[in-house]
Write a structure and sequence with these properties.
Length: about 475
């Protein structure tokens, strides 16, 4: 089944059908048991009435037996001989009884019993046994064979003779009641399943109507590639409404991501065009006039191009979700090593406090962050660049500060966007493409930390302590 509505209707119908079958079976079993118990009680009452007559000395030929069709009764002696039988009772369980009261006519109490047999039963003369045995069987009453529930009780007459009274109660009412209930269930179960299937289909169709609207709009968005469109949001506060809102949030994030990607490609193309065009011009001039070739300028343009390509590749890896290495890095040792290698800086880097603390991540990427922050400080410092590492609870803080004019407060977040430069001309002359701080923040975030401007000229990199 490819339809959710069909699967829901089929599942609900199957569950209801199984539940009804189980409940119906239980009802039939309970009903049948109760009716059989009632029939057994009726049979026991009839048997005890006859047994009481025997115990009080009533001759077998004069026993007042109930109607044979409703309660067939057979009284048998210890040797199995029929002492009395109900009117029109011809056979019980296929065994002939010899007619009503046949064999007992003229017989008085104790016809089949002897005093020597008094110890064969646990009851005394003139008593009725408290134990009752129940069994199902058939009886032929006036030529009609039917099912009965029999109660079997022993009694002793006043002469010490033991008689077994077997009285039955018709099971036809029980069978008719169970049959009627079974027929009603067999008719009602399919009808109820059809109703359940129809209601489930309609309810599911109504519930899934907004989902179909979402699907249709998503298909239209896919066909038109217009990410500014949004799916309809139902007024209900259920799962479908949350799905629509989440879908719109996803579309908004996707639109923003695509827009950033477009800007990134456009800015990268613009940044690459300048050094490539300059390098090509110088090489063409060198081919035509070798004496005019600006080799240092060509080298500088090549270095700029190399740095820009490296920055773009790193950003691409970060955007692809590249996870940093899981190694311990001593931040203080890294600062000392990286600072000692910057011998060509315009302003020497002063190293302040270096608290011993390790972080987890990629040493190469963290060194790249430090280098970008120092490069940014070198471009804006007047005469001082300082770096320090301090410990603040569960965080390690790397600070880079300079004595430059600082970053205006309203620009402290924008400078971390890609290809953003507060002084485009000066930054381009110094070789900056506006990617250094953006790369630094991306690396910080992927290491579980943050990067921001605390004051105008103090940059803070916060990373969690390893372990």
């Amino acid at each position: 089944m490819g339809s959710v509505r069909a699967r829901a209707a089929a599942g609900a119908t199957a569950v209801v059908a199984l539940a009804l079958i189980a409940a119906g079976t239980a009802v039939l079993l309970v009903l049948r048991g109760n009716l059989q118990e009632q029939a057994g009680l009726q049979a026991e009452v009839a048997a005890r009435e006859v047994a009481a007559q025997i115990a009080t000395g009533t001759p077998y030929a004069e026993l007042d037996l109930p109607d044979g069709e409703d309660h067939p009764v057979v009284v048998a002696g210890e040797d199995g001989r029929v002492l009395a039988a109900g009117e029109d009772v011809r056979a019980v369980d296929g065994k002939p009884v010899g007619g009503a009261k046949r064999g007992a006519k003229g017989a008085g109490p104790g016809v089949s019993g002897d005093d020597e047999d008094d110890d064969r039963s646990g009851i005394e003369s003139g008593e009725v046994d408290d134990d009752v045995a129940y069994r199902d069987g058939t009886a032929d009453v006036d030529g009609k064979v039917a099912d009965y529930r029999f109660a079997v009780i022993e009694a002793k007459d006043t002469r010490g003779g033991t008689a077994t009274v077997r009285a039955g109660a018709a099971l036809a009412p029980e069978q008719e009641a169970v049959g009627s209930v079974r027929t009603a269930m067999l008719i009602g179960l399919p009808l109820l399943c059809v109703v359940v299937a129809g209601v489930t289909w309609l309810v599911t169709r109504r519930a899934l109507r907004p989902v179909e609207g979402i699907r249709g709009e998503m298909a239209a968005i896919t066909a038109s590639t217009d990410l500014s469109r949004r799916v309809p949001v139902p007024t209900s506060q259920d799962e479908v409404g949350r799905l629509a809102r989440t879908t719109n949030e996803t579309l908004a994030a996707l639109e923003s991501s695509v827009e950033r990607q477009r800007r990134f490609v456009a800015d990268a193309s613009h940044e690459l065009r300048s050094p490539i065009a300059s390098l090509r011009t110088q090489l063409e001039v060198g081919v035509a006039h070798p004496e005019l070739l600006d080799v240092p300028g060509a080298v500088e343009d090549t270095v700029r191009l190399q740095r820009l390509a490296a920055d773009l590749l790193l950003l691409a890896r970060l955007d692809a979700g590249e996870r940093p290495a899981d190694v311990r890095v001593d931040l203080a040792a890294m600062v000392r090593e990286e600072s000692s290698q910057r011998v060509a800086d315009r302003i020497p880097v002063r190293v302040g406090e270096l608290a011993g603390a390790e972080v987890t991540g990629s040493r190469g990427q963290l060194a790249r962050v430090l280098g970008n922050l120092l490069d940014n400080a070198q471009r804006h410092a007047a005469g001082s660049v300082r770096v320090a590492v301090v410990r603040e609870g569960a965080w390690v803080v790397l600070r880079v500060e300079d004595d430059g004019p600082g970053v205006p407060e309203d620009e402290r977040e924008r400078i971390f966007e890609r290809f953003v430069r507060l002084d485009d001309a000066r930054a381009r002359d110094d070789g900056g493409a506006g990617l250094g701080l953006a790369i630094a923040r991306d690396v910080a975030v992927r290491h579980g930390g943050s990067l921001g401007v605390r004051t105008g000229s103090v940059f803070e990199l916060r990373l969690p302590v390893a372990g």
